[in-house]
Amino acid sequence: MTPANLADTVLSAARAVFETRGLDLAALPATTVVERPRNPEHGDYASTLALQLGKKAGVPPRELAAALAAELAQRDGITSVEIAGPGFLNIRLDAAVTGTIAGTVVEAGPAYGRNEQLAGERINLEFVSANPTGPIHLGHTRWAAVGDSLRRVLAAAGAEVTSEYYINDAGAQVDRFSRSLFAAANGEPAPEDGYGGDYIAEIAQRILSEEPELAGQPAETALPVFWSRGYALMLTEIRASLERFGVHFDVWFSEKDLHDGGAVEHAIEELRKQGHIFEDGGAIWLRTTDFGDDKDRVLIRSNGEKTYFAADAAYYINKRERGFDRCIYLLGADHHGYIGRLKAIAACAGDDPSKNIEILIGQLVNLVRAGQPVRLSKRAGNIITLDELLEAVGADAARYSLARSSTDSMLTLDIEEITKHSSDNPVFYVQYAHARISSILRNAVEKKISRGDSYDPSLLAHERENNLLKTLGQFPAVVASAAELREPHRIAVYLEERVATDWHRFYDACQVLPKGEDPATDVNVARLWLAEATRTVIANGLALLGVSAPEKM
Q: Which long-range contacts (CB under 8 A, 24 or more apart) does 373-377 make?
């Protein structure tokens, strides 16, 4: 028995108890809950199985817990089982069993923590999707960090994930962007509803340098060129900024192509087949109120103009027709109203809005230095750009800091805090643990100490070793939980509060390498396995956040 299959062991014991008592085996769950207790004095692991099954089996939970405890006590590797409260089971394992966790982690390497809970599920994950009319700003940057981390976490849980950027290259912003470029090229102020910032003048001058014949041309001739060239340049800059941030998109989907390819008309016909299209006042509507929306939505106005909502409907149907089982949208704080209407689209299309579509809303980000708001960007006008953030703090500090908090709450980043080289800085604290372990392993090589192909797990019996081992054993469950709840910040919390903390406590209490010229003992070898296992978990966790695991700092 190993900690990894403890749940199966508990379930096997329950099956034996049920058979002995002639109880219905159908009441047994496919899996059981085994978790770390909040208070380590209560044991290594805890189970609520007796509480779950007592009512179904018609047996008082505490009586069932007593029978389970007696059965489990006979299993190899289990030192003791205590009953608490109305039927909780507190389980203690033999040190040799807990010690095997280090070997399990090292042997799995980069695959440790991965699971198959989402295997077979095709997920479309759309995030950022900023208009190609300006640089990526701080608000988009939070979604870039969180979205890419979520992509990695979902893939680690076995899903086939496609990351997608929806390019809003159709609609009113196209006209405002092209008119802003035209005005800048002619030395005129930006239109009242246009885009400001030095970047507009930069793009306009670059276009003129490549196509000088545009100078002095009338608006009707020049505007389409300014749009097409300006759009291409802006999109190239956005891609480059995101790549520097370590964010790669599998698909860049054009809204214009959606319209030009007839996808909107196709979507309307598909929705009409479902019986939710109606006409009123010369316009074509979708009856979304049938599925909880606050009002029905216009798809095509009486003048024949397609609405943004029509594009939203077409885009969702397009995703589903591309074979995605689940469409996840990551949207900003100003998009709460989209939740009901997007779910209504899914329902109108004949899908289950609780399964086929998810909308995650993220709150705003503020950037400060020593508690004072950072100045606004001169280049971009009234925003702080991703490139400016990268220049100020670097990709690792930015990504980790943006991904380590729940998106449900507003986030304030202090530039001085997230670049500080001290244990007060969470990203430094975690990365330093990895670098420290790497230094130890390098020193072992210099001392010609090899951890070899095996170790004695029973030698990892110190309290600090036991705590660290059990923390490492939790990593697969943390990844699974982060994927299920769509909360990649759980990885960061685990790395900070559990792994790095338990590692530093272990290192302070336990001598990993022999002192001076002393020969290495079997204990040293076992601790090298534990060190390598800890380094593996930190590296794997940081990789899920898109953050590097440095070997030197």
A: 374/415, 377/197
Helix intervals (H) in 246-302:
255-260, 263-273
This prediction has a pTM of 0.90
Measured in whole angstroms, the distance separating CA 412 from the mean position of its chain's CA atoms is 19
Name the 3-class secondary structure at 163: strand
Q: Which helix (H) or strand (E) holds 48?
A: none
In 3D, which of 472, 126, 521 has the Cα closest to residue 327?
126
371, burial (CB in 10 Å: exposed 0-12, middle 13-18, buried 19+) = exposed
What three-state secondary structure class fits 333?
Answer: helix
Q: pLDDT tens digit string along 15-39?
A: 888 888 887 767 676 566 788 887 7
Q: What is the mean pLDDT of residues 133-162?
A: 96
pLDDT one-digit tens code per residue, 260-305: 999 999 999 999 999 999 999 999 999 999 999 999 999 999 999 9
Q: How many residues does the chain have?
A: 553
Burial of residue 209 (CB within 10 Å: 0-12, 13-18, 19+) is exposed
In the three-class reduction of DSSP (H, G, I as helix; E, B as strand; rest coil), residue 204 is classed as: helix
Tokens of 475: 């990593």
